Amino acid sequence: MRRSYPALVLAALVAMSAQAAREERGTLVLDGVPPVSATLIERARPWLQGRAARFNGWLPDGSMLITTRFADTEQLHRVAAPLGAREQLTFADDAVLEATASSAPGAAGVPFLTAGAAGAPPQLRAWRIADNSTRRIAAPVAFGGPFVWSPDGKVVAFSGAAVDGVHRDVVAFEPGRTQEARLLVAAGAKSWRVLDWSADGARLLLVNEANSLQGELWLADAATGGITPVPFETAPRRIRSARFAPDGRGIYLVADFGGEFAQLAYLDPVANTLRPITAEVPWDIERFAVSPDGRYLAFVADAAGVSRLTVIDQIARNELAPAGLPEGRIGELAFDRDGRRLAITAESPRDPPDVYVYEPAGNSLARWTRSELGPIDAAALTAPELIGFPTWDRANGGARVLPAWVYKPRTPGPHPVLVRIASGAGEQARPVFDTFTQFAVNVLGYAVVTPNVRGAAGYGRSFSALGETRREDAIRDIGSLLVWIGVQGDLDRSRVVLMGESQGASVALGSLAQYSDRVAGGIVLSGVASWSRIPNARALRKPLLVVHGVQDTVAPVFEAERLVAGARANGAEVWYLAAKDEGHEIRAKVNRDAWMTTAAAFLTRLAGR
């Protein structure tokens, strides 16, 4: 029976009266969130102390720049040797969001971006190598990324929103020398992303992301800002990354060339020819790096969610596969100035992100950072199992089977289940290091399932396209997963919680409404979801925790607030936690601690413990 508007208002008032009071604690806003017990906080505390390390570039002296946590925020550090001391370079109050270094002898500084204070946008800054000082950089546009260095290490370029707020200009500045960025290439009707700088410093390689129908590469004159298109005999659908080849003639690029997966190829713009390099690899190529002399070409393939690194020796004509990297995801990838060392950021479900260096000449791998887990025993961490669950439709002559990673407690079941839906348009659930997942499994006793529903990236263009027209079909995938959970003897089908993250939020919320009789509640973390587009939103009445960054530009905070108000109007109990100084990712330790302990209390309650 459909409820009248007055009845909905009454239900909302009853629900609000049962909610905990709204309060602010520093930069945190808690609305309807009851106090977390001291016992649970103590159980969570050991799991909140670890940190990670990520590679940001080689420095002129051969050392490397990394980002790692100091106190409550991520800061820049220098590491000079394998497992050497981390020398802290920045001491900002706000976390470092992005940074890059140049190994060129002429490099005088390091550009980096910090999170802004509550309500303020991120700040562009530079660290000076000469005197270890930092300064703020004034720019005509807000940073849109990424930083790309000129070959002499003097100038860095990046893109940012143009005056119209829709397209993106290219601007540049000299870290360590100037305090103001200048316009380099105007947007016009295009949205530029900077890819590379030519070896002579005269041209930039750009991609126009305003064209959603086909990929466009352009060359920009660094002195005049004039642009020239790069010719293709057949233009790719989408260009993911590209850079100039060391031979000064060609361009390496990763793009969708009409097949199922993004491939690495060599483009000769003079002869207008394209030479495929990874045509035999049945997976997306995620990233690549080329040594300055062109001898080594390294690329990473996304093999069913697990990164696979291959290094090609183009002189010896053989392939190398470095052994000893964590089995999970590979992030940053960069050769040093001499082309002898390849820096790699790698992680697995049991290994936090750390930096490794591979030397192809000797086929040797060295670990340069070892991040701390805090007081957690590494042996207690859980490795997931990759399973396939049948869905409601058919493919290849049988039921379509979707992949999911399953983390289980070592104790006997049946266990309550947390379904983390992080996949969606352009996203993929992968086996990475995640403290919250490990805490939910090892302390709260939940089994955690991370599925890849249709529309997710990484499984081919056809699979990704399944979510473009009928997103409700992905909700039906979750229904199939609930059926699979129901027949597992060690999983408790009566205590299932759905958690939607970023793009996965719309699927989680739609599933929470559609299958309300089969789930206990839901969590939305930085959700990209609109209340008006949730199918059957009036049925969303189960307990809900919403966590959001007020500065989120990917998913505006007003959408999260509409979700909270709408669910409460349905009579649902809603906990709302907002961080005023966070964007789309919850980065600061104090904020991560708050959302994890709040989520732990929410899950404990739904599990009936």
Q: How would you sum up this structure, described in words?
A:
The protein has a domain at 5-48 and 376-606: Alpha/Beta hydrolase fold, catalytic domain (Rossmann fold, 3-Layer(aba) Sandwich). With 609 residues, it is of the alpha+beta class. The protein contains eight helices and 38 strands. The longest helix has 18 residues, at 589-606. The strands form eight sheets. The protein has a ten-stranded mixed beta sheet, with helices on both faces. The chain has a four-stranded antiparallel beta sheet with strand order 3-4-5-6, with no helix packed on it.
For the sheet with most strands, the description reads: 10 strands, mixed
CATH architecture of the domain at 5-48 and 376-606: 3-Layer(aba) Sandwich
- What is the CATH topology classification name of the domain at 5-48 and 376-606? Rossmann fold
> What radius of gyration results from the CA coordinates?
25 Å
The span between the termini is 34 Å
Helix/strand/pairing class, anyone?
A: alpha+beta
Mean pLDDT: 92
DSSP, total strands: 38
CATH class value of the domain at 5-48 and 376-606: Alpha Beta
Biggest sheet strand line-up: 1-2-38-37-36-35-33-34-32-31
